[in-house]
Design a protein that fits this description.
Layout (H helix, E strand, L loop, with lengths): L2 H19 L2 E14 L4 E3 L8 E13 H9 L4 E4 H4 L6 H26 L5 E12 L14 E5 L2 E2 L3 H9 L6 E8 L2 E8 L1 E3 L2 E6 L2 E10 L4 E3 L10 H12 L9 E4 L2 E2 L5 E2 L4 H10 L4 E5 L8 H12 L4 E5 L2 H9 L6
Parallel strand pairs: 3-14, 14-17, 17-18
Antiparallel strand pairs: 1-3, 1-4, 2-13, 5-6, 5-12, 6-7, 6-8, 8-9, 10-11, 15-16
InterPro entries: Lon_proteolytic, Lon_Prtase, PDZ, PDZ_sf, Ribosomal_Su5_D2-typ_SF, Ribsml_uS5_D2-typ_fold_subgr
Protein name: endopeptidase La
Keywords: Hydrolase, Membrane, Protease, Serine protease, Transmembrane, Transmembrane helix
Amino acid sequence: MSRKIYIRNFLIAAIILLASSFYYLPYYVSKPGMAKELEPIIEVDGGYDEEGSLMLTTVRMGRANIYSYILAKLSKYQEIFPAEMIKYEHETDEEYALRQLRAMDTSKLSAIEVAYKKAGIPVEYRYKGVYVMSVLPDMPAEGKLKPGDRIFKINDVMFKSSDEFKQYVSKKKKGDMIQISYVRNGKANRTMLQVMPFPDNRDQLGIGIVLEDDKEIIVEPDVKVNTDEIGGPSAGLMFALEIYNQLTEDDLTQGFDIAGTGTISPDGTVGRIGGIEQKIVAADKAGADIFLAPNEKGAHGSNYEIAVKTATDIGTDMKIVPVDTFDDAVFYLENLKEKK
């Protein structure tokens, strides 16, 4: 084979390989992410330092191409999910990303509330309106509103919550026109929309948007949580522990590196998350001594049960601790003996 033919065939093969890497399958692949220390990204004004560390854990999730799909099939701690298990019907990539970021924001608010209340510090909320989380196809808002818009007024009525918004619209009649005032990219806008029945429920009227409350928490001392582009609700427990640890003089870490996961509700309940196996792998690679896992009240197949199995499989010395509530986690850490 001549050199010219060899180079031509090589280039053709390279182009085919490159092009096929951009052909996405109707699947998502998740793999171990990272264990990230929280002290550098959470700052309570005048907060206390810690000897060890509290860490959130993540998974890496992405659309599958041919190569990532094959690799996931061959890898023990990568999982493949059909696209419909990850994204809602008709949900765009933009709406999915926004939903994950809003879930993180909600998680942060719950974590702050839980931590401050545990420390005996009062909490207040200021409501600013509602966020548009998604826009339904073939409804009046399509092409007029976008995910991320913050609605603060209908006609001349100011309102604070999604419930108030829904109650106001529900009193309208089919065909009524309403003026929506909203903020997009820091600029106030207005648009006129017609109230219409939903395609899948002709008895329900609306403009075709999915809403979530936009609110900010007011606490003293102030707290900043800088999560950048990390999405999802699963860091709630660890956020709450880091905030509480900075609010109180006694160091919960006792010099240990403590990773964990779990959603957090305003009442302190710790909830199940996805990707527990990948998070155990990530925490072990980061050198964590302890991992806090949602116990789900001892249910069969709980995050804790799967975490213990994964820890055994990878041969880690990391201790897996079950927690059902924020108080469970604090109680366990308060009774740790200082690391030698």
